[in-house]
Amino acid sequence: MKTSDYIAEFLVAQGVTHVFEISGGMIMLLLDSLHRNGNVKVVTVHHEQAAGFAAEAIGRVTPVPGVAFATSGPGATNLLTAIGSCYFDSTPAVFITGQVNRHEMKGSRAIRQLGFQETDIVSMVGPITKGAWQAMTPEDVPVLLERAFTLCREGRPGPVLIDIPMDIQRQDVSTPVQRVPRPEPQGEVPETIIGELFSRLRQSRRPLFLIGGGVRAARVEELVRQLARKTQVPVVNSLHALDVFPYDDPLRVGFIGTYGNRWANLALGSSDFLLVLGSRLDIRQTGSETAAFAADKAIFHVDCETGELNNRVTGCQAIVADLELFLRKANEAAAEMSFDTPQEWLAEIGQLRAAWPDTQEIKDAPGINPNALIHALSAVSKSAGAYTVDVGQHQMWAAQSVELVDGQKFLTSGGMGAMGFALPAAIGVALALSQPVVMVAGDGGFQVNIQELQTVRRNNLPIKMVVINNRCHGMTRQFQQTYFEGRYGSALWGYSVPDFTKVAEAYGIRARAIENAEDIGEVAWLWERPDDPALLEVRINTFANAYPKIAFGKPISEMEPLATPDAMEST
After folding, report:
1. Do residues 103 and 23 share a domain?
2. DSSP classification of residue 103
3. What is the C-alpha separation between 130 and 72, in angstroms, rounded?
4. Is the preceding peptide bond at 561 cis, omega within 30 degrees of 0?
5. Is residue 552 part of a domain?
6. This model's pTM is above 0.70
7. How many domains, in total, are found in the chain?
8. Which of 355, 385, 408 is the last residue of a domain?
9. For residue range 469-514, what is the model confidence (pLDDT) as tens digits?
10. 164 and 213 assigned to the same domain
11. Helix, strand, or coil (residue 508)
């Protein structure tokens, strides 16, 4: 069959249900083959970055990698941010780009470009993919597709890219289409390390499990819950693991890190045993003072990549293992043991939570309290399948206060920290789950991919959009307040926003705005028509800060505004 037809049938065989793209010359054969095949929905967006973020979202919430297409040149380069986001946040995704005909490629000629829009995307994406290849014969395509769908899910997941010249797409290939099985976990977990871990755990008085995004990437949430419940160890989570334990689980402590819940950071700071599962322990989890973070703790750190272990936080008991294999072995061992519930420790954590409620961190800011807003939004959004959250202050308020119920997912851009993520990610999740999605974005991030309101409207997706509008780039404005004596260049001065309700209405989407504290209950309006999109603009005080925040240069337990930074941070 024609190579482009083969690609369409191959995607169907892998269970791919959606491909995100923008029409372009070098992928027209691929799009026509998908159209004629009819078993994959082609979702046209309005910027390739949005196509990439939507594919990333599908790779996070389903067992099938997300897929996005782009034409050569600007189409391919517009994917770069989303590809990097998949790489840093361990998301399996397959990106397929069209390329000019082979006879139009510059090859070894000492020129910049031969064919129109010819661009060496394979070289560009090399550092931010697990693999990137260019097909040079029709016979390469089946081999590369099978390799791509294996590699992106193998070990630590991540993105791959295949670049296919247009003339190859229209040539015949004879290889039969087959399904590529999901790779099985590889490696061994020594029983001796499991025994040492449980020996130290049973000696501890203030144990914690710290779970990170690797738990979601490895799809081992239930195994983590089993281990925590068997051992009765309370759990703190990083940004990417907010949804592993529901909000009301008695073992869930809270969100830790730079903008973590104050009570959770205080508990983490005083713990004496830490089992780290799927977290890199980067600066946003530990603060800058790694010696203070590690002090007086027995730390067992599990990760599938050797380089992540004893990297920033040293002195850990390193366990190089696939999380699924480790947790199965740990649960088997735990089943043969008895554990004492650390009642005093749990009571102390409860006292810390009561002493430092999230809604009181910026209680003096006039107008709508953003933490109170997120609690109110959670109360009316229990039927949502997921939250997609953009990057900025609102991201931290959401992480501090969102009340996720069992089964709800929380998606945001972590390692890349890409503004503009939330809206296209919501599109991907809504299509993948066939459920309503709550999107939370700031005014700055929302404008990055605001054009995707048309994609929402055209597909009539049940996305409940909450735009927290402080009329500035809030996180950098807060940074300028702390370190630049209140000189707000670019973040506030010279920046502006539209009336988001009018923008949404121009796209045919219902919208309204609130700005007074007594109007918080209006979040319920979003759900008056559960199956329709709606946008609520929430206008808050420009100078509301995201607190608490680790005071840079100080231990994780010392947080602004009660503590003052010792040095200027880099993020």
Report:
1. yes
2. G
3. 20
4. yes
5. no
6. yes
7. 3
8. 355
9. 999 999 999 999 999 999 999 999 999 999 999 999 999 999 999 9
10. no
11. coil
